[in-house]
Amino acid sequence: MSKEIQFVKNDWEKYLSHNKYLVANYTAGWCGPCQAIKPIVDQLYNDPDRKYAKIEFVRVDLDKERELAARYQGANVPELTKLLDQFSELANNDADAKVRQGNGSNEGGADITKSVIYKDISSYIPKGYEILNDYLYSGQFESLNTVPLYKNEELDVKNVFRINEPQPSTVYSDSDSQLLFYIPFTHITKVYSVLLSFKKPESYKHEESMELDEEDLQNETQVPNLLKVWPNHNNIISFDDANDSNAPHIEEITVADQDSETIWYEAKLKFVRFQKVQSLNLFIDGEDQDYHTLLDKVVIIGVNGESKDQGKLE
């Protein structure tokens, strides 16, 4: 899924201060040249070869930001590409320039501390550690037997890893009880723990927008009861391997009775086995193989390290 370029909203100075190499795309609904060049700019920003990965892009509305827009207009594609190539060469030869971590005025992307779940998980983040979800690489992410619970073209399985995603993120296992994720990172990381969020089936209120009907939701769903984790595979493993292999981390998920609707479960990994991690395979299962296993969110805690020069989860 392509990443959308964000519009300036009274934060132009922050964009300038937090992005060493910044391209501003001035646009308006009534401006023919602006609309003509918009898809070209989008293609450049989402170039699969990451040619301009060290350059941030932002859009400026000609009507809402008249002062900024006063000196800039036009739709010269060859000139734009020429200037971008010159800009990219400067950035690539600049030791201080970093691959963009997200579109926005906050350095490194959106402020995770302002996310709706941060207050629930902050106690699970030791001093010196951070949430690694913003460093997941979309291009190679995979999942098996995993379906979004809610019907919406804008929803996908990756939402279960998106910290700041306002839309529903719940997924469920489709044909049996097992879920499998392949999670590549943009950086070499040290992984401390995996947090799983889920609710008891009776806590879900059925809605017409759900893939599961009311009977299935109430009578044929379950919480996770098993987690297996593997580091540094080149791709997603098979379910046969997940069931037969001895994973570096295997943990039975047990949850004491609690009043809160949302349950957060912390799986602390054996840190010595999860250093210099470039990818994870996560296998999640439920107790009854004929039931759907529900999962609301996955958060990975650790230490971010050396960049692998890839893009983040989009």
Automatic annotation (TrEMBL):
Pfam families the record matches: PITH, Thioredoxin
Domain PITH: 121-314
Keywords in alphabetical order: Disulfide bond
CDD domains: TRX_family (cd02947)
Coiled-coil regions, chain positions: none
Residue intervals of the Thioredoxin domain: 1-126
PROSITE patterns recorded: PITH, THIOREDOXIN_1, THIOREDOXIN_2
Domain of life: Eukaryota
Cellular component annotations (GO), alphabetically ordered: cytoplasm
PANTHER family assigned: THIOREDOXIN-LIKE PROTEIN 1
UniProt protein name: Thioredoxin-like protein
Species this protein is from: Cerrena zonata
